[in-house]
């Protein structure tokens, strides 16, 4: 298994964010983040990087089968989608009046909900 370095950066993307794939087989496809893997620097996006897994027959499962599962994709290959412009953008941070750190879209400076 891949061993992440001790200084893995914090992910700026969260579960539920709508992202677009920037490179690879699924380029320009969009989906929601289902799961984040900060130790690996990867995210699982719905409908992206689907692979087939062959299941052997067992006592419980008499018939073998082929399942389609979603595998994680590297976080550097995805970018958050700004709902105002419908384009890929970066995540920035700012502090509100109470001193709480909030995430904003870099392009439109609106808060990420």
Report on the structure:
There is one protein chain. It is elongated and about 60 Å long. The two termini are 34 Å apart. It has strands at residues 18-21, 30-37, 42-45, 50-55, 65-70, 73-74, 78-82, 87-89, 91-95, 101-105. The strands form 3 sheets. A 6-stranded antiparallel beta sheet has the order 6-3-2-1-7-8, with no helix packed on it. A two-stranded antiparallel sheet has the order 4-5. Strands 9-10 form a two-stranded antiparallel sheet. The mean pLDDT is 91. The protein is an all-beta fold and 113 residues long. The protein has a domain at 18-84: SH3 type barrels, CATH 2.30.30.30.
SSE topology sketch:
Elements: E1 18-21, E2 30-37, E3 42-45, E4 50-55, E5 65-70, E6 73-74, E7 78-82, E8 87-89, E9 91-95, E10 101-105
Antiparallel strand pairs: 1-2, 1-7, 2-3, 3-6, 4-5, 7-8, 9-10
Distance between the termini: 34 Å
Which range best describes the helical content: under 10%, 10-25%, 25-40%, 40-55%, 55-70% or over 70%?
A: under 10%
**Architecture (CATH level 2) name of the domain at 18-84:** Roll
What is the arithmetic mean of pLDDT?
A: 91
What global shape is seen? Answer: elongated
Alpha-beta content class: mainly beta
Q: Could you name the CATH class of the domain at 18-84?
A: Mainly Beta
Low-confidence segments, ≥5 residues, pLDDT <50? none
CATH topology of the domain at 18-84: SH3 type barrels
| SSE order, one letter for each helix or strand | EEEEEEEEEE
What's the β-strand tally? 10
Oligomer, anyone? single chain
Sheet with most strands: 6 strands, antiparallel
Helices, by number, come to 0
Strand content: 35-45%
With strands numbered from the N-terminus, the spatial order across the biggest sheet is 6-3-2-1-7-8
Cα radius of gyration in angstroms: 18 Å
């Amino acid at each position: 298994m891949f061993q992440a370095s001790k200084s893995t950066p914090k992910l700026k993307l969260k579960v539920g964010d709508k992202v677009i794939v920037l490179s690879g087989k699924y380029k320009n496809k969009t989906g929601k983040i289902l799961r984040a893997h900060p130790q690996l620097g990867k995210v699982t996006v719905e409908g992206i990087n689907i692979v087939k897994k062959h299941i052997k027959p067992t006592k419980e499962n008499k018939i073998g089968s082929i399942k389609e599962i979603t595998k994680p994709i590297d976080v550097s290959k995805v970018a958050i989608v700004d709902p105002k412009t419908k384009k890929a953008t970066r995540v920035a941070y700012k502090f509100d009046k109470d001193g709480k750190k909030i995430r904003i879209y870099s392009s439109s400076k609106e808060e990420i909900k």
